[in-house]
Amino acid sequence: MRVPRPRQLRRNASPFERHVPGVRYGVLDELAGYAVRRAQIAIYEDLDHVMTPLQLTPPRFSSMVLIEANPGIRQSDLATVIGVGRPAMVAIIDHLQSQGWLRREVHAGDGRANHLVLTRKGLALLARAKVMMLDLDRRWTQGFSEHERRTLITLLDRLGPSPAAKPGEDPA
Amino acid sequence: MRVPRPRQLRRNASPFERHVPGVRYGVLDELAGYAVRRAQIAIYEDLDHVMTPLQLTPPRFSSMVLIEANPGIRQSDLATVIGVGRPAMVAIIDHLQSQGWLRREVHAGDGRANHLVLTRKGLALLARAKVMMLDLDRRWTQGFSEHERRTLITLLDRLGPSPAAKPGEDPA
DNA sequence: TATTGTTATACTCTATAACTATA
DNA sequence: TATAGTTATAGAGTATAACAATA
Prior knowledge:
By secondary structure, chain A is mainly alpha-helical. Chain A has helices spanning 32-51, 58-69, 75-82, 86-98, 120-140, 146-158, and strands at residues 102-106, 114-118.
């Protein structure tokens, strides 16, 4: 089962409506998991407008952020962190390198591994992308108080099978 | 850009870790959008265990819930509601029908449209699936208070470009 | 002319397996 | 033997366009 990277956009279609008037959603409205899915669809329609002009995709953007914050990280570790396989990571890095945004250097202590570093050009683009992404994300939480925004992120980080659901912490 | 139905599972890989120790996530930790993505990856790894034995997928399950709650809904409307294209909906309905879980009847007032109705067998399976899904969802929010659970769903429903972000309502 | 369901097609993303070079 | 990166391949899911039947 694929983890939906939200569905491919239907360019000429009307935007996704989370609650179509007159339709009863039954248990779906009771499921946190379905709320996540719904939110993701709505978000991705918008995300496209920011990513595409920059020749970026969500995994490409995430990778650049992580390489900047962890210079010299190796590909396999990066793949683990963003949750893709190693082969998929090769394609992501290939693209970023073809744009001149990063270099693959030989790892100092391990001849098998790649040492990933952003170029000046890559850092410049990333700076722009980060501003745009932060701006977009703030627009998504426009009506939220800062407390609500933090609460949402914290609850999302706790949601899920194993690492989440620790009764001790109470972010709300 | 595709809306990620979360990534295909790597069966022999370790489960997705949302915060790998020693890795700095930079702005990613500030983005509600990335928190959504992270949560979805974690969720889908688990979802698989419930869906597969029942010959279900998330869109199939959602479709059945919606057909039960809105008997006679037409395919195109169903597609709009769950956020897929009409061709994708055909495949979903085909499968549900092949399992004997629903019938396509001719719509009373419109000879073009299909009137979708669950069979007794479909209703029985759906009843089982709903119990399992609710149970799974509760496990994902195990450490949450009921207030936190509702808050998460409400905030997720407000997150996004257009319909969300209404300053008036304060669910937290 | 527009819409519903359908089919055919292409594209994207992903997993899996196998290869190489290092360890 | 095991691991990092790579390549090749197949599969799932989706969008797009075009078609028939009906409105």
